[in-house]
Write a sequence for this structure.
């Protein structure tokens, strides 16, 4: 087995080097300060899927835009839905509204979103399917996304950071190969076992395309980047190394070469203890923690890795609300007191979330 | 947050006490020897869901039995399908053929299995729903299951151990509340947040019923027990303590009081690093490791906990077969050499598994 026990940092970044300092001075965007070495109290706060179906104004804009992908590719509408939660809650960061399946769509795979059914893709299973993907053709669609980034940087309050993102190659590949969401990602995992070289070509295409996509987002005005690896948690250690760690490391290295000042947050959902190894090897500046990440990992283990910790309230507590929500917010704040920390959820906001509970959360985090 | 960093054993069992020795002498069933302190080479081997749809003879027996629950409650048919993989592969242990939803069914909840759709239950969401569950009525259905155990003990080769099992209260509750399988167990988790006392009543009912059910299985002839907690991995640490650790601890304690010689294996799937805490607190004798369990946990961390390790080959490698399968089997054997170890999968056999790959695995493990 190839993944050794995580040890102190020996990986891509030198220890003790605060990252993400865009200028010699401190950023005026609070969200960026933890990456410049500051432990803030209260911590910056934003929430995954903060622009989404739980907001009535989002539903109205989406209805106006047409299909879900139409919304992603309409700079005017995508800008509007990105701004909606900032207006309501004044989060410290906005995240570009788009979808991780923009990348396969831009590469030429057929992607549709049926209402209430999740995404459907024409599955890629063979070398011939793979050969039809064309990184050279992504420019048009990526330009639309980057126009949203530019508009956002113009319209966001100056103190609000803007996060760009992509899906990690492994997670995007699971959808591309399965043709839809799945609980076990069986088709991608089987391909990787049966034909690792062929599967590597798909991953390489995604690495190359993701680098280009994120580079464009930064040039358009993104202050930070997040790489979403939703399905990182089901892989055995050697497969985790090959399909999660190595591609992410390649993306981070390429982005760091071009934009050393832009912090990158990795979110290997479900990775548990392997997240230490992931942080050590990939060189990410921040680690997104899912709901099940043990507290000692968040407060101690990652500290040794010199990485900003982000997370990890259960999105279902935001549905439940009440004292249970307040108590858990307080527990997380107490646990992370004095650490370089960004408050977030452990997974995205779910549609049935009452918007007033989000306000309650933000007030609680800020001690208002 | 309530779960401290796992430390050396301070929990339910004294350190250094080999468990599971039914008699003063060594068992003649190899499967039981690791629980008596022996590290075997080659290790004992059995596979989760070794009786199942990948076997043509299983499909034939199931068609004859009627519905899936009919099969579970027919001692003749359930005995037959339990024996089928033993005849083919000579596994060191057989596992009683049944389903974790036998418990809610016996408690009076309506449970059905639609072909290709998974289980459907009339969901339990209120105190009134809960009040209709009746532990006093479980005897009839549990007797049918235990008749299967008795028949099996009579028909199995004498050297083959027989494993009884139940679903852990948390995992069974997720189905009872959701009414079906789900990727996020949202309904059970929401109930637990909104009304922890009410949800505790459901868990208590399941603890009490599971103790009775497992006690009966042991009295009928089970040599060992496994507690399946398939959905343990999505819970935050404090919820993991309340709904996974505490109920399992109660079940283990009650069974240990009645049958101190019978080893109990816990399988908190997806628990990652929290599995150390789980082992320490619950007092299980064996820990089932899922596919994503990091190797250093299997070979080092659990060693300090004096627990038998079981796992963790990816079931999809058993579909893929070939050199990739052999190489991974060898890696796991090498990793666990000299440890008290039982070879198994990290999750159940999937239906599309070629039976010849299972034979290949068993030969490889045994160095034949």
């Amino acid at each position: 087995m190839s993944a050794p026990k995580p040890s102190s940092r020996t990986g891509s970044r030198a220890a003790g080097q605060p990252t993400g300092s865009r200028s010699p001075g401190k950023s005026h965007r609070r969200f960026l300060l933890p990456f410049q070495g500051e432990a803030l109290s209260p911590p910056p706060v934003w929430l995954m899927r903060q622009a989404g179906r739980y907001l009535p104004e989002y539903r109205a804009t989406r209805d106006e835009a047409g299909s879900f992908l139409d919304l992603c590719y309409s700079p005017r509408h995508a800008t509007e839905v990105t701004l909606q939660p900032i207006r309501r809650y004044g989060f410290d960061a906005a995240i570009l509204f788009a979808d991780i399946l923009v990348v396969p769509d831009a590469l030429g795979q057929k992607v549709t979103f049926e209402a209430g059914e999740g995404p459907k893709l024409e599955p890629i299973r063979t070398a011939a399917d793979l050969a039809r993907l064309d990184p050279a053709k992504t420019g048009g669609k990526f330009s639309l996304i980057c126009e949203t980034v530019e508009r956002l940087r113009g319209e966001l309050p100056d103190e609000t950071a803007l996060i760009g993102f992509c899906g990690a190659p492994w997670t995007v590949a699971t959808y591309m190969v399965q043709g839809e969401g799945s609980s076990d990602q069986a088709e991608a995992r089987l391909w990787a076992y049966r034909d690792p070289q062929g599967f590597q070509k798909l991953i390489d295409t995604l690495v190359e395309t993701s680098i280009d996509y994120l580079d464009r987002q930064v040039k358009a005005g993104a202050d930070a980047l997040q790489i979403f690896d939703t399905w990182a948690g089901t892989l055995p250690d050697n497969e985790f190394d090959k399909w999660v760690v190595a591609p992410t490391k390649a993306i981070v290295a390429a982005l760091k070469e071009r934009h050393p000042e832009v912090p990158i947050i990795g979110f290997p959902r479900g990775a548990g203890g392997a997240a230490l190894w992931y942080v050590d090897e990939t060189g990410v500046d921040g680690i997104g923690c899912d709901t099940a990440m043990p507290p000692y990992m968040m407060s101690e283990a990652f500290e040794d890795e010199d990485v900003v910790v982000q997370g990890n309230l259960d999105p279902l507590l935001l549905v439940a609300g009440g004292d249970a929500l307040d108590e858990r917010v307080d527990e997380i704040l107490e646990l992370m007191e004095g650490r370089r920390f960004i408050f977030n959820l452990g997974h995205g906001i779910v549609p049935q979330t009452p918007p007033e509970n989000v306000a309650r959360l933000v007030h609680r985090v800020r001690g208002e």
The beta strands of chain A are 93-95, 111-114, 118-121, 161-167, 224-229, 264-268, 286-288, 308-313, 341-345.
